[in-house]
Amino acid sequence: MTSEEAAPVRDDPDVVVVGGGVAGLFCAYHLRRGGASVTVLERGALGGPQSCSYGNTGFVGTHGAAPLAEPGLRSLRALGMLNPDAPFYVAPRADRELLRWLWHFGRACAPEAAAAGFRALVGMKKRSLELLLELCASESIAATFASPGIVLTYKTAQGFADAGRTVPRAVASGIPLRVLGPGELGELEPETRFDIHGALYNPEGAYLRVPAFVLEFGRMLREMGVDIREHTDLTGFEMKAGKVERLHTNRGDLRPRDIVLAAGAWSAECARMTGVDLTLQPIKGYSVTVDMPPSGPSRPVLLSEGRVAMVPLGDRLRIGGRLELTGMSDAVSERRVRGMLRTVRAYLPALERTRTHETWCGLRPSTPDGLPLIGRAGPRNLLIAAGYGHIGMGLAPAGGELVRRILAGEPPDTDPNPLRPDRFGAPRR
Fold first, then answer.
1. pLDDT at 182
2. Residue 330 pLDDT > 50, yes or no?
3. What are the backbone dihedrals phi and psi of residue 264, each rounded to the nearest 5 degrees, phi first?
4. Contacts of 236 (CB under 8 A, 6+ apart)
5. Which residue from 100, 102, 124, 362 puts its CA 20 to 30 A from 89's CA?
6. Are 335 and 342 a contacting pair, CB within 8 Å?
7. pTM here?
């Protein structure tokens, strides 16, 4: 079967991908191109509000390769993470899995571990950008991708000095990051006025317009023959002789050869149905989409110390950010949203207030070391592709390619060893 032939709808496909977010869709894309018949199960509407592929800032490109776990964050008090107004907030609660995650997070903050994580993420992000440029050359999807570069702004002298020291490492890794000289920020963003100490610029900064990208990508996959089943909940696995024999869903059973679990924040819950424990925590993030102000930016801007980003979406501006470990709750915290908007006003005090179209939050499946979980686990025919965290849009293309190569038994382009799902060991009972 060639990648151009349409696969018939069937209950015994070669591969079932559980999850129709950007991670699952790129797994389906690469698997289908390799000739497999693929069925994707999505618990809601494709690109719907329940998915992190709906309301995030869509950043891709080579920016953002530093893991969330970084030197200096080994203590929860390092950034005041127990403070509900902190950019990264951890809600105290008696939860064994959370405590285990935080313990591994502390270990991942060691300088050697953080450096290794950075190298792995840089490689995945560079490969993902190559794949996106190839995919988005297609006229039908080109309008959902933009690569105008990204500006990284720093409010404080200390933050700017610390960022400047990372530039040589970034350049040595192939990331064209540079410090903006006097007047250069004004040339890049002549309509926007910043109250900051300094800025960096990465010309390889790019973004996907979501959810438009997800919807168009889904249409493309269907044309390729991928069977995408929306509003389909996974309800259980039937095991036999060390493998998954059958998947149970609210819309019938499937009998695939292989299963790829890419269910985002629900991946840990799904994996437990097979007896597999994944070291994942949902990290909540927020976005507010408003009318584009007259002095709004023309390209993505990161307000670095505040962990807030802005991305232009035509006549609208999306403001995204904040990180919080508060479990599986999808409730919007007005306090957190107000804090995010205060950060914007601190960096851009002249930015006009405009009409708000939507306030949204989503749960990003995150590992302690910031690297995704990609590889086999538990049953012989189960493969995990989860834990992409807050940079999932920029990792998913390479992650899907790695999934296809593992299932095909081919040598991978991406080193799979740092991504092993069992690298955190078995949880203590």
1. 84
2. yes
3. 60, -135
4. 247, 248, 273
5. 124
6. no
7. 0.93
Q: How many residues does the chain have?
A: 429
Taking the CA atoms of residue 181, residue 183, residue 187 and residue 189 in that order, the dihedral angle to the nearest 10 degrees is: 90
Q: How high is the pLDDT of residue 427? A: 52
Helix or strand or coil: residue 312?
Answer: strand
Cα(77)–Cα(81) distance, rounded to whole angstroms?
A: 6
Tell me the two tokens of residue 230: 């929306």
What pLDDT, in 10s, does the model give residues 283-314?
999 999 999 999 999 999 999 999 999 999 99
> Cβ of 124: how many Cβ atoms within 10 Å?
28
pLDDT digit string (tens) for 179-216?
999 899 999 999 999 999 999 999 999 999 999 999 99
On whether the CB atoms of residues 40 and 230 are closer than 8 A, the answer is no
Buried b (16+ CB within 10 A) or exposed e, 289-314: bbebbeebbebbbbbbbbbbbbbbbe
- SS3 of 98, please? helix
